[in-house]
From TrEMBL:
Designated name of the protein: ATP-binding protein
Classification via CDD domains: HATPase_UhpB-NarQ-NarX-like
Keywords: ATP-binding, Coiled coil, Kinase, Membrane, Nucleotide-binding, Transferase, Transmembrane, Transmembrane helix, Two-component regulatory system
A single MF term (Gene Ontology): ATP binding
Histidine kinase domain residues: 359-447
Ranges in coiled-coil conformation: 205-232
Matching InterPro entries: HATPase_C_sf, HATPase_dom, His_kinase_dom, Sensor_HK_TwoCompSys, Sig_transdc_His_kin_sub3_dim/P
Pfam families linked to this entry: HATPase_c, HisKA_3
Transmembrane segments: 141-160
């Protein structure tokens, strides 16, 4: 059942209960009024009947009393019949029997006796006329209430329809949001039609649509930047493979071919110069192979840090710091790993979080050395039950404070921001009091021991 029909049914039920209560009150009042009227009429009939009965013959007295036309009264010579209504009950067939039974006032009879104890005259007070008047009044009132109720239901139908009309526009806006169209239309279309609750709902949906549209634009921008970062990374790897790996492999090919030709020449014994050439070319091949091995390791580290596959996260971070310490011995490096009562510490994080923490530290260190030229660099990783924090700080020239700094940095920073945001975390990059740069990331994590429950 629709909301409109429910409201109309509720209004109709209220009107019906109001009508039933009003009818009950009217019937109770009518019962008391009819009884009082019958008692008063009976007293009047007794007084008049005694006066007429004392004057003469009873039949003449009955005729005289009937001519008076006293309302609700009927006079019978002698005793009253077994049915006190007699013929007086006719003429009121318009009153339903159930209504007369509800009023519940029966005819009242009083016998007037003579000095000898014989019944001379019976006075009967009949409530039929009074009950008929009450029935007519209630029928007219019920008809008026029915017309008023229908008019009220019609007005309520129109009012509820106009009040709920914005729901169709709100439903259409929600359908567009579900389809990925984050443009609900003008705010006036979701104004709520003067209903404050619907107006607040429409305003909230419009604001949600604007936020989703902004988030969509931001995702497209970040996606474009990530694609650019991937293309740049692939170009760098391709250039390294072409310039270094290709040249090294070509040199190995040349030296190996020369060694092969020297070994296949039909000479009884090689000259000293040929032996020296073979040894030199063999050493060159070994040197080129070592260069190729180092280059392949560097490319593989860029694609996937091998330390994480071989060591726990804490040791992998320590190895990363040691590697940078060997490259930049003039910089003071520090690593602080702390756990807050977790059983496995940072080593108990899942694969995605471990890789994210390592990449954050790796990219932050690269940016610190590339842009800041610091003398001190510190890496802090803290693990709580529900989150893990990574902070990389240096004492370089500084960086602009604010949450939007991540979006204005390089492609590496944009990649970090997108990775952290995808995991439901936050990333802030800025200066610490105008001195140095501080990269702080907070990532939610599932508490140790609850993975199975989740």
């Amino acid at each position: 059942m629709s909301l409109r029909m429910r409201m109309l049914a509720l209004i109709g039920l209220f009107l019906a209960l109001l009508a039933v209560a009003g009818a009950a009150v009217m019937i109770a009042n009518a019962r008391d009024a009819v009884r009082a009227e019958m008692a008063s009429a009976l007293d009047l009939g007794i007084a008049v009947g005694r006066a007429e009965a004392g004057r003469g013959a009873i039949p003449d007295a009955v005729v005289t009393l009937d001519r008076l036309g006293l309302r609700h009264l009927r006079f019978i010579a002698g005793e009253a019949p077994s049915d006190p209504l007699g013929e007086g009950g006719t003429g009121h067939g318009a009153v339903p029997g159930w209504f007369a039974a509800l009023v519940g006032v029966a005819p009242q009879a009083h016998a007037l006796t003579g000095s000898d104890g014989r019944v001379l005259l019976t006075v009967v007070a009949e409530p039929q006329d009074e009950v008929a008047e009450v029935w007519e009044d209630m029928r007219d009132l019920a008809l008026a209430m029915l017309v008023a109720g229908l008019l009220l239901l019609g007005a309520a139908w129109m009012a509820v329809g106009r009040a709920l009309a914005p729901l169709a526009r709100i439903e259409a806006a929600v359908r567009r949001l579900r389809e990925g169209v984050y443009e609900p239309g003008p705010r006036g279309g979701l104004a709520g039609g003067g209903v404050p609750e619907l107006a607040r709902l429409g305003t909230g949906i419009a604001a949600l649509a604007e936020e989703l549209a902004a988030a969509g634009r931001e995702n497209r921008r970040l996606g474009q930047r990530l694609i650019e970062a991937q293309d740049r990374e692939r170009r760098d790897i391709a250039r390294e493979i072409h310039d270094e790996l290709g040249a090294a492999l070509f040199a190995i090919k040349v030296d190996a071919g020369r060694i092969l030709r020297l070994s296949e020449e039909p000479k009884p014994e090689a000259t000293i110069s040929e032996r020296v050439e073979v040894a030199g070319r063999a050493r060159a091949v070994l040197s080129m192979a070592a260069d190729v091995h180092r280059l392949s390791r560097r490319i593989l580290v860029r694609l996937r840090p091998a330390l994480l596959d071989q060591l726990p996260l804490g040791e992998a971070l320590s190895g990363l710091i040691d590697e940078w310490a060997r490259r930049e011995p003039e910089v003071r490096w520090s690593l602080d790993v702390a756990e807050d009562g977790t059983p496995d510490g940072i080593d108990g994080l899942d694969e995605v979080l471990r890789l994210t923490v390592f990449r954050l530290a790796q990219e932050s260190l690269v940016n610190a050395l590339r842009h800041a030229r610091p003398t001190n660099v510190s890496v802090t990783v803290r693990r709580w039950t529900d989150r893990v924090e990574v902070v990389v700080a240096d004492d370089g020239p500084g960086f602009r404070e604010g949450p939007g700094a991540a979006e204005q940095g390089g492609l590496g920073i944009a990649g970090m921001a997108e990775r952290v945001r995808a995991l439901g975390g936050t990333l802030r990059i800025g200066s610490d009091g105008g001195q140095g740069t501080r990269v702080a990331a907070c990532l939610p994590c599932v508490p140790a021991g609850l993975e199975g429950v989740a």
